Amino acid sequence: MFNEVCNQKNTLLKISLLLLTFMILGIVILGGITRLTGSGLSIVDWKPLMGILPPLSATEWMNEFSKYQQSPEFQKVNFGMSLADFKAIFWLEYVHRLWGRLLAIVLLIPTFLIIFKKQKASLWPYVVLLWTLGLAQGFMGWLMVKSGLYHDPHVSPYRLAAHLLLGFAVFSVALWMTLKLFQPSLQLFRQGFSEKAYKKLMRLCLLASVFVLLTAFMGALVAGLKAGLLYNTFPLMGNDFVPPELFTLTPWWLDMLQNPVTVQFIHRWLALLTAFLCVAIWVYGRSEFIPPLLSNALVGMAFVALLQLAFGISTLLYAVPIGLAALHQGFSFVLFGSLLFNIFLLYTRKNDILRYE
Fold first, then answer.
1. What are the CB-based long-range contacts (under 8 Å, 24+) for 93-96?
2. Contact call for residues 232 and 325 (beta carbons, < 8 A)
3. Residue 80: CB atoms within 10 Å
4. Scanning 110, 209, 276, 298, which has the fewest C-beta atoms within 10 Å of its C-beta?
5. CA of residue 275 relative to chain centroid, distance
6. Which residues does 227 contact at the CB level (< 8 Å), separation at least 6?
7. Eight-class DSSP state of 105
8. CA 78, 318, 263: angle at the middle one, nearest 5?
């Protein structure tokens, strides 16, 4: 892949967008680790520019620790924490925020090349969208942290979910831009690929993408409500398929969002349905005369879906260990990316962009 990048035009643009896409995936995993280790509320203010440098002296460290000691998390949860313990959680949140700033710096490269150097100038709307979504993501991240700095030492599950979904949006735009740059290398031969098969595959992939996002949304609520620690059995929840606490809040739609048992139940079944749908798409693709590249992409998508399901079940059974849980969060983006790749191949075929016969 790297040699292919270097041997073609727009090398710097391609490398920068590849780096940006992988860095977005990296910050998703890092964000999961930050949340799971309870580090997300360690920095109690937001300084997008002045906060680049960490504390550099004993006085500055004590000042940061003093501010944290005023937060509800310290007063209600970590009241016995020492300065050394505080530094451990501070550094995770600091690196998470620094990574976000580095993403902005990397994004400057394709911005300059596309808008000012006119390389692939048709991509400028995507660049504008990336900056807009990136700024919204940073602001939502702070709103999420802020929700845990007053009274309740836990972030809002809704803001956590919004933060995650914005991450999917940023990742999607970056990946789509990258795929458009590598489009000439994606030789999608079309002989024998029926219009009916194309339309059905496109609808199924779009539907599976929606299921991934819905599952991720409910997963964020599971994380925010600590629902993953309630029933650590599978496929049963305790001794039942349908736990007795299900739908005990009124109205019913509020129960789906705020009842931890219901949230975990819905997340489980959405995950199972998503994996089943991805495998069904692959099976359908095998029955049609589809291009080899698309066939391989469908195999990869089905494999990732099953792997993601395995990560989710393992995370549940082992009571949410940090490593598995972070990997499970990151792989939701890998699964979504694999579906987006299939959609891209189908989309380019529809618009006759690829002219390989």
1. 93/34, 93/39, 93/40, 93/41, 93/42, 93/43, 94/43, 94/54, 95/30, 96/27, 96/30, 96/31, 96/34, 96/39, 96/40
2. no
3. 7
4. 276
5. 17
6. 221, 260, 261, 263, 264, 267
7. H
8. 80
- pLDDT, one tens digit per residue, over 297-309 is 999 999 999 999 9
CA 260 – CA 317 distance, rounded (Å): 17
Distances 242 to 236, 239, 345 between C-alpha atoms, Å: 8, 9, 40
Q: In the numeric block, which tokens belong to residue 134?
A: 């990136």
CA-closest candidate to residue 181, choices 22, 338, 10, 344? 10
- The mean pLDDT value for 6-14 works out to 75
In angstroms, rounded to a whole number, what is the distance separating the alpha carbons of residues 338 and 282?
12
* Burial state string for 314-338 with b = 16 or more CB within 10 A and e = fewer than 16: ebbeeebeeebbbbbbbbbbbbbbb
Residue 315 and residue 321 in contact, taking contact as beta carbons nearer than 8 Å: yes
d(CA 62, CA 78): 16
**pLDDT at position 164:** 96
Q: What is the pLDDT of residues 209-218, one digit of tens each?
A: 999 999 999 9
Concatenating the DSSP letter of every residue in 63-110 gives HHHHHHHTSHHHHHT-TT--HHHHHHHHHHHHHHHHHHHHHHHHHHHH
> What are the sequence ranges of the domains in the chain?
1-185, 189-357
Residue 330: helix, strand or coil by DSSP?
A: helix
Quickly count: other Cβ atoms within 10 Å of residue 280's Cβ: 13
pTM of the entire predicted model: 0.91
Residue 357: what pLDDT? Answer: 34
Give the span between the Cα atoms of 325 and 122, in whole angstroms.
Answer: 39
Mean pLDDT of the chain: 90
Separation of alpha carbons 17 and 112, rounded Å:
12
Q: State yes or no: pLDDT of 187 exceeds 80.
A: no
Tens digit of pLDDT for each residue in 217-235? Answer: 999 999 999 999 999 999 9
Q: Count the neighbouring beta carbons within 10 Å of the beta carbon of residue 77.
A: 14
Quick: pLDDT tens for 134-172. 999 999 999 999 999 888 888 999 999 999 999 999 999
Sole residue written with tokens 């075929």: 349
